[in-house]
Structure formats: C-alpha cells, structure tokens
Amino acid sequence: xxxxxxxxxxxxxxxxxxxxxxxxxxxxxxxxxxxxxxxxxxxxxxxxxxxxxxxxxxxxxxxxxxxxxxxxxxxxxxxxxxxxxxxxxxxxxxxxxxxxxxxxxxxxxxxxxxxxxxxxxxxxxxxxxxxxxxxxxxxxxxxxxxxxxxxxxxxxxxxxxxxxxxxxxxxxxxxxxxxxxxxxxxxxxxxxxxxxxxxxxxxxxxxxxxxxxxxxxxxxxxxxxxxxxxxxxxxxxxxxxxxxxxxxxxxxxxxxxxxxxxxxxxxxxxxxxxxxxxxxxxxxxxxxxxxxxxxxxxxxxxxxxxxxxxxxxxxxxxxxxxxxxxxxxxxxxxxxxxxxxxxxxxxxxxxxxxxxxxxxxxxxxxxxxxxxxxx
Length: 375
Ligand SMILES: Cc1ncc(COP(=O)(O)O)c(C=O)c1O
Fold this sequence. Notes:
Blueprint: H1 3-9, H2 17-20, H3 31-38, E1 44-45, H4 57-64, H5 79-89, E2 96-99, H6 102-113, E3 119-124, H7 129-136, E4 140-145, H8 154-161, E5 167-171, H9 183-193, E6 198-202, H10 216-222, E7 227-232, E8 245-249, H11 252-261, H12 269-280, H13 282-305, E9 317-321, H14 326-335, E10 338-339, E11 341-342, E12 351-355, H15 359-373
Parallel strand pairs: 1-10, 3-4, 3-5, 5-6, 6-7
Antiparallel strand pairs: 2-8, 7-8, 9-12, 11-12
Helix pairs in contact: 4-12, 5-12, 6-7, 6-11, 8-9, 13-15
The structure holds pyridoxal-5'-phosphate.
C-alpha cells in the first residue's frame, strides 16, 4: 500500500498531507534479512556506504572511559564537540550546529528556511533526503537531472536557480554518483544561488576526495553566499551507528534558527564523546580512507574489464549501469548474500550503487554481479 492510499483509507485525525504523501526513504536492508533470504552466513553489506574497517580505537576508549555517563543528559549545545570542530575547520564554533547525523541537519534546515509552497532545488539522482525533507514541510522541489555521462549539468542547475528557490541542496562528491564539482562549477553555482537562497553544500564524502577537490567552505565564504556546509562522522570516521554530523553556517543567525529547528537533546552522550575522539585521530581516518580508495580502484579496474559503465568516483562507493532493472538486480544480489542499493529515481532505474567494503565483501559482489550479467 502506498502512503497516499494509506492516507485515503485512514479514519481519525487528519494527517499532515505533506508528510502522509512522502516517498519512502530507500534504506539498506539489515544483515539478518539478507541471511534469511540468501541462506548465506557471510553477507557483503554494501548498501549504506559504511566504513568496513570500523572506527578509531580512540573512539572505543572514550566510550569505555568514565567520561561516558549514559545516565546524564548530554550537553544540548554540544559545546565541546563544536569547539573541536571549530578548531578543525578554523571557524567560530558559534557557526556550527551538531546533528543526530547530518540527515537531521537536512531536516532542520528545511524547517528553518522553507514554508509550504516554498521552493527547493536539488539534483537527480541524489541523496533522498534532499528531496524528502523539503517535501515534508510542504515545499516544491525542482530536481535537475545529471547529464547522460553522469556529470553535474551546470547550465540546467543555473536555470533552476534562476527560479529563486529558498534552498539549494547539492552533494559533492555526489551521492549516489560519486562525481565532484570542480572549482569553476562551484563558483558558477554560488553566483547563481545568489543572496536570497541558502546554498547547502553536502560534503558527506569529502574525506575520500583526491587532491584538487575545492574547499567549499573557503569558496562560499569568499563569494559571500549564504550557505551551510554539511559534514558527517558516519563515513570516513566510521561512526554511522553513533549518529553525528554537523552544519557549518555562514552566519550565527542561521545557526541559531537551525538550532531552534532541531530537537533539544539531539546528539547523545556517546556520539559527542565519540566524535571528539574521532577528530583527534586523523591518522586513523586517513589510513582507512587510503585503504578504501585503493580497494575502490582495484574493484573499478575489474568492473571496467567486465564492460560495466560506471561514473568516476571520489567516494567509498561506485554507481553503475546493471544492464537490467535495478530493483530486480538488488533482489538477485540479496539472494547471493550481497546487500546493495538498486536506484529507484526516475531515469536511473538501471543503476545500482555499491559501497566499497572489505576485500572479501567486494569479491562476493563481483562474483554475484558476474552471475547477474550472465543470467
Ligand atoms: C550525501 C549524504 N548526506 C548526508 C547523509 C547522512 O548521513 P548521516 O545522517 O549518517 O550523517 C548521507 C548518508 O548516506 C549522504 O550520503
């Protein structure tokens, strides 16, 4: 039953129609489900862009220390964490808001800047919440397709931004595609976004990028564009389960209103301690990223040799044409013990996104993909 049908069949208090009509977020399946469906004990968990190497031992030590007091409410303003992030970025902590994952910041930004009938611009294919959260507050969303060869369509984005949205969400590197905006493209989009729009630059995968990746914070500050940069501890730092990310805002007033739009005790005690410890262990993160990127290139070469069409990726995942229906492909893979994402957005139903996991997970994926392509 779709949510629309459920809303129509519903008897009792009326739903918020914007929420009742939301598309479902396409989340990765749990390992237990994959074991049951496949009968395999070893599952390649490659749907959610998690870090296959875990997290820094310093995070585990912080959580085992006496500083972790689960019986206390954590600081609702996450002062220590914001101070650590401010130092790391070289900006005033008053510009930072921490979230229960950066996804919470996408919701808070939508609540803070959009009203029913308002307008947001984003890209298709993209991270689902860049569309879902604006829709949840009753805004309209213009989704600008990428080009056929899977790059950002800058002129089309400029046209959409000329329609004067209140918010512009874009991820670079792109989830799900993996490609990045170069400096010239970022500057063009910043100019097109202008003074009346909030430019939300989602850099969830920034740590995986190659040298030359533009410094979004520096660019948007220099061009004096109202903006928020989103970052997360879920990917390169390996803290997806702790739920912590942040918004770095161009003005303290933006931070104040985004702060008002979040729940008060949103970042729990473990997440605050863990994120501080993770930031202190840059060496662990860089080592993990180096191994993941090397493994990504190894997998890419093999897939290239198999004739698979893929976008170039500066992330911990690959986006590829599966030469068939992506939902069917994901089902097939699941039976083979591989969890990945079949893309469902219109125009991209032949694409799958696979996370770069540990070597044995990637080998399991490659073996299953060979079977799928030979079916
Ligand atoms: C582009 C992008 N932004 C934000 C998020 C949210 O991450 P989290 O809420 O775990 O910080 C993700 C997660 O996959 C993502 O891919």
